[in-house]
Amino acid sequence: MADGLAAAAALRSELTGPSPRVLDLGSGGGAIGMAVKLAWPQAHVTLMESSERKYRFLNSMAARSGLAGLTVALRRAGQGAPPAGQRDFDAVAARAVAPLPQAADLALPLARPQGLFLAFQSAAPDPQEPELGRALARHAARLVKSLPYRRPGEDRDRYLGLFRKA
Question: Can you give the residue ranges of every domain in the chain?
C-alpha cells in the first residue's frame, strides 16, 4: 500500500486535469492501483493482469469495492496492439513486472504522448545504463525525476522513477 501511496503523490504532482487515466500494469493483488484510486478518487484506474486467477480476484475486489472508475483488464502487455480502452493512459505504473528496460518496453506503448511511466526500483534509475537508454530512445521517453521514498519499518530508500514520453 505504501508503494501505491508514493505513486499517488507523484501522480498528483505531475499530472494535470481532474480525472487522469492510470494503468496498474501487472497488478498482482492490486495494491498499487487500489492505493492510487483510494488516494485520488477522481482518477480512472485500470488494473491489468495476465493471470486469469488474479484477474478473477481483482474483478471481484473491484466489484465489491463499489468504487466508480475502477476497472480490470485481462491482458498481457506486449502481445499485440491493445484495444482502444487499454492504451493512451495518462500514467502507467509498473512494480515487479520485469527488469526496468523490459518494463519500459511494456509500459511506454500504453501511455499517451506526454504520458508518464512510473517504475518502482530499489536503486535510483540510471538513464545512462545502455539497455535502459535504448528502451527510452525506442519510445522517445526520458527520465523526469527519481523520487526516494521509504515504506514503514524500512531503513533504506526505494525509488520511484518517473519517465515521460515525448
Answer: 2-77+85-146
pLDDT digits (tens, 9 = 90+) for 94-143: 998 899 999 999 999 999 999 999 999 999 999 899 999 999 999 999 99
- Please provide residue 91's backbone torsions phi and psi, each rounded to the nearest 5 degrees: -150, 145
Kindly report the pTM of this predicted structure. 0.92
Per-residue 3-state assignment (H helix, E strand, C coil) for the chain: CHHHHHHHHHHHHHCCCCCCEEEEECCCCCHHHHHHHHHCCCCEEEEEECCHHHHHHHHHHHHHHCCCCEEEEECCCCCCCCCHHHCCEEEEEECCCCCHHHHHHHHHHHEEEEEEEEEEECCCCCCCCHHHHHHHHHCCEEEEEEEEECCCCCCCCEEEEEEEEC
Q: How far is CA 60 from the centre of its chain?
A: 21
CATH no., domain 2-77+85-146:
3.40.50.150
Q: Report which of 42, 89, 93 is spatially closest to residue 67, judged by C-alpha positions.
A: 42
